[in-house]
Amino acid sequence: MYTNPTPALGAGAATGGTLAMTGAASPLWIFLAAFAMIAVATAILRIVPRRRRQD
């Protein structure tokens, strides 16, 4: 069980083959990430209290 490297090599090969396909970023995912970041920023701006000017 601990001396046979075949299961570990097989798992590494399977993982390596699937991770290689995730390197290409399509424009759709970039757009969705940008939209999510803008949504988070606007949500934080709504939560943070505003400073009022004292005249």
TrEMBL record:
Keywords: Membrane, Transmembrane, Transmembrane helix. It comes from the Bacteria. The chain crosses the membrane at residues 28-48. This is Uncharacterized protein. It comes from Streptacidiphilus jiangxiensis.
